[in-house]
Amino acid sequence: MSHGHDKSLPPSLRVWAERVVGPLPAVLDASHPRETSRVWDVTDSRGRRFFIKQSASAALYERETFGYQSAVPALGFGRAPRLVETDPRQLALLLTAVPGTPVSRLVLSGPEHRSAHRQFGALLRRLHGTDKMPGAGRREARTALERLADDAEHHLTRAGDLMSEGRRALVRRSADHVRKLTDLLAPAHIHGDAQERNVLWTGPAVPGQRASTREASGQLAVIDFERSRYAPAVQDFVRLACGPWQDRDDLRDAFFHGYGRPLTDAERQALPCLAALDAASCLAYGPDHGEHDVTARGLRTLARLESGALGAFV
Fold first, then answer.
1. Which residues touch 160 (CB under 8 Å, ≥6 apart)?
2. Edge-to-edge, what's the strand order for the sheet holding 39-43?
3. I need a labelling partner for 146 at 20 to 30 A (CA). Which of 16, 21, 231, 304 fits?
4. Cα separation of 8 and 186, whole Å?
5. Per-residue confidence at 230, pLDDT binned at 50, 70, 90?
6. 104-130: average pLDDT
7. Is 23 exposed, middle or buried (0-12, 13-18, 19+ CB in 10 A)?
């Protein structure tokens, strides 16, 4: 899936992985289109599939290692890849493969789509683990929110002409309001990139094929923990609110049914504010890195916030 860049498996990574699982006769590039993505889908001589991932930075490597060490115990066997081995020198992780196709690439029936979001909610609630939050995690969650608000001005500068004065004011108001909510938001061990492309659906669904009468018989698994960290739980709802939940109250309702509790009043206030901050981040990052889908998401979110169309968020 690489686009114009050489992303063949480096010999040093092959040697390391083969030392753990044996010869790897089949290696496929499974990277995202972005330049920094380095992922390979490999199969050993016994037909077992694994993924080798090389993190773009030490911080992402540490987050993902932490995330996967917590994911399988929290979510259950088969609900997340298992971390087989890591190599801090090469910032590499060796992961088991879990079956399924990203929900973002499937055309699911209504019952299946709702079941996927209901399961996603249940899995995130397990991962969030608020009841077992260590004191250091709670402090880290608070700091993360304050840093997010503090970064807004930097993002506005980088966004340049993409941000009107009205939208800049909206983002600044959102940053100010988030700071006031810091002590009221439940801390959690969040996934950090909770969206449909990072959950795999196993079931009878076929990519691009719709069957309106299909029953919801599939199972969900969560992948890609490189942004896993301690932060307010509500941050894991932002990309869903800005994406599949727009004009789909049934998916949002199914998610929170699975999650086991509704949004608190503070979370209802925080969600559109966090969406505005995420949009500013998108407009700061997307154009500089040629990620047009990220830029489009930021513009779309700001347009909805400006129009007062907050139904998808609350």
1. none
2. 26-29, 39-43, 49-54, 92-96, 83-87
3. 304
4. 42
5. very high
6. 94
7. exposed
- 3-class state of residue 293 by DSSP: helix
Closest residue by Cα to residue 176 from 264, 96, 100, 276? 276
From CA 230, how far away is CA 63, in angstroms rounded? 10
CA angle 267, 293, 117 (to 5 degrees): 45
Say if CB 191 and CB 34 are below 8 A apart: no
Beta strands, E only, the chain: 26-29, 39-43, 49-54, 83-87, 92-96, 101-102, 187-190, 199-202, 219-222, 229-232
261 Rama sector, left if φ>0, alpha if ψ -120 to 50, beta otherwise: beta
Interval 292-309 mean pLDDT: 90
Torsion of CA 279, 75, 28, 104, to 10 degrees: -40
Beta bridge partners of 219: 202
Residue with more model confidence, 81 or 208? 81
pLDDT digits (tens, 9 = 90+) for 232-252: 999 999 999 999 998 899 999
Distance CA 303, CA 245 (A): 16
Q: Residue 277: which of 211, 178, 190, 189 has the closest Cα? A: 178
Which range among 121-135, 141-155, 298-312 has the greatest average pLDDT? 141-155
pLDDT of 189 reads 94
| For range 21-46, the mean pLDDT | 93
Distance of CA 116 to the CA centre of its chain: 15
